[in-house]
Amino acid sequence: MTERVARTVGLPEGLHARSSAPRGSYDGSFFLRRTLAVAAAALAVAALGVLSGVYVGFDFVQAILDVPGGFVWMATQFVPSASSLQKLDAILPALGSTVLASVASSCTAAALAYVCAVLGSRTVGVGGPFPQFVRGIASLFRNIPVVAWAFILLFSFKQSEFTGFFALFLTSFGYLTRCFLESVDEMSAGPVEALRACGASYGQIVAQAVVPMSITSVVSWVLYMIETNIRDATLVGILTGTGIGFVFDVYYKSFRYDVAGLVLLCIILVVIVCELVSNFVRRRIL
User: Fold this and answer.
1) Contact, 160 vs 224, CB < 8 A?
2) Does the reported pTM lie above 0.85?
3) Domain 86-285: which topology?
């Protein structure tokens, strides 16, 4: 009966066969087509990489062969010696200055970013063009790398601690504003609507609903930003001539690789300790 209907309406036999396939069956060629598509994408990416390497003169094979020698050189040259320990009196103050600058820039940016995120939120914001303005500023500051900010500010404020602080602050402000906006927009609207129905003012809504519901996410993002800024502050210090980055640059250019290795070891230890503390705080508040 079904075949007679299919022939009557003029449907192709293959189409009729696929339409009359039992529920739960699948096309056996689906995985073949998907595999071919993935393989084609991988080949396209590989071809793009090869063409890019040829254009810039990069020899991938030679680079792979040089990797073991590079690790051997690092292992032999950057090992801290007994004499390098005498430089700790110059390394530790610079490291402490870098950590404090990272914490200060992160916390200052977080305070300003949270205010802008609340005012620019689509759910509890002030409305008007301010939300678009806040998102535009956040995107601008976030998409400019901290190294570019350091170069820009270096010509304006010269080599100083404030230059590194300001570069970290601008990048942190853009990143945290974007993160706080998403946190505030994604929170439940029930408490906000309940307070509005009770006649609460805007400040009461923010204090009694927005802050309690978003504070855990805010603290988590601030801790992450502190970790990131401690790592970035080393590179910023090389450019601005301040902090632990400047100390590393001085000893590296003086061919005191053992002292430079000690500086790297101190930075790694500080980053690990900061990450452990951050994870502990997250576990306690989340």
Assistant:
1) no
2) no
3) MetI-like fold (1.10.3720)
